[in-house]
Write a structure and sequence with these properties.
- The protein is of the alpha+beta class.
- It is built from five helices and 13 strands.
- The strands form three sheets. Strands 1-9-6-2-3-4 form a six-stranded mixed β-sheet, with no helix packed on it. A five-stranded mixed β-sheet has the order 5-11-10-7-8, with helices on one face.
- Strand 2 and strand 3 form a beta hairpin.
- The protein starts with a helix and ends in a 12-residue tail after the last strand.
Length: about 300
């Protein structure tokens, strides 16, 4: 009898040791995945990027821990708790386990509260989103009366199917977005047709642009370079072409660009979707149904469509 009790205790200790090892290994792998997740993202180029990347790493760590915990438990059961071959008998008539039910309720609750609290804290810290004013499409776009704090702006960001236009406080119109380094810049996000989305991956910021609304938005670029602005909201046949460059430069270079550009004559801006649509018409207008792309914007700075960018 003592031998059986001793074997049972040894088996119990071995099981606890294996569980403790698996739990520790899970934590280690989860922390490594969170650390590695930073390398999955493009370079950080705004004040917000560091905070967003930390949140992403935090969620990756938690997600990995849950995934490995669940799959590991299922693998353990499949390997060590499976019924013997040819065993067709019924399992034990278990009717619940209060302790287990409390555990699998409390742990997800804590994880969800941790993620939501951290996310809310970062959102308040970034404070990117400002006021939102509604208006009837076709009428004059209203002026925002918000009291957002910024160093430069506001710049009107006008989105269309499928091109971008940027209008600066001094009247400059451009197809590429120029921003001064380390200056909090305020935008008025406007769409002339359907829903678009202002998304710069290197800035880690994304804001949907809603028809009939002027949305104020602010960000601070922290790295010089050329970054890609993408429309992250499906807006029709050529929405993948609705991209432009964001050029972050020193304040002196930005001021020089502004002084030189304001003197230039208006010309057609970038409009790659229009070029593809013209090619379609030459080939017989075959294929999927689509709306006619908006004409190219009239701008002083046309920009360079094939300009190399950093991400």
């Amino acid at each position: 009898m003592n031998t059986k009790v001793k074997k049972y205790k040894n088996k119990k200790y071995l099981t606890l040791l294996i569980i403790l090892f698996a739990f520790s290994l899970n934590i280690l792998i989860s922390l490594l995945m969170g650390y590695w997740s930073y390398s999955w993202l493009p370079m950080q180029a705004s004040e917000a990027a560091h905070y967003v990347d930390n949140l992403f790493a935090f969620e990756t760590t938690i997600g990995t821990f849950i995934f490995l915990g669940c799959t590991g438990t299922m693998a353990w059961i499949l390997i060590f708790n499976r019924a013997p071959k040819y065993d067709e008998s019924n399992g034990e008539p278990l009717e619940g386990n209060l302790k287990l039910e409390i555990i699998w309720t409390i742990i997800p609750l804590i994880l969800v509260l941790a993620i939501s609290t951290y996310s809310t804290k970062i959102n308040y810290k970034l404070n990117n989103l400002g006021s939102k004013i509604k208006y009837d499409i076709g009428q004059e776009i209203p002026i925002s009366e918000g009291k957002e704090i910024f160093d430069y702006g506001p710049i009107d960001v006008v989105s269309r199917q499928w091109n971008w236009e940027f209008i600066y406080p001094n009247g400059i119109h451009s197809s590429e977005l120029h921003l001064p380094l380390n200056k909090r810049t305020n935008f008025r996000l406007i769409t002339e047709d359907v829903i678009h989305s202002f998304y710069v991956p290197a800035f880690r910021l994304k804001q949907d642009i809603i028809p009939g609304s002027v949305i104020t938005y602010s960000l601070t670029p922290t790295k010089k370079g050329v970054f890609r602005l993408r429309d992250a909201m499906f807006s029709g046949a050529y929405f993948s072409q609705n991209q432009s460059n964001v050029i972050v430069e020193s304040e002196d270079i930005f001021n020089k660009w502004s002084e030189d550009t304001v003197k230039k004559e208006l010309q057609n801006g970038l409009n790659p979707a229009g070029r593809l649509y013209d090619k379609r018409l030459k080939n017989g207008n075959r294929g999927w149904a689509t709306v006619v792309p908006a004409p190219p914007p009239k701008v002083q700075d046309k920009g360079i469509e094939e300009r190399p960018h950093d991400g």
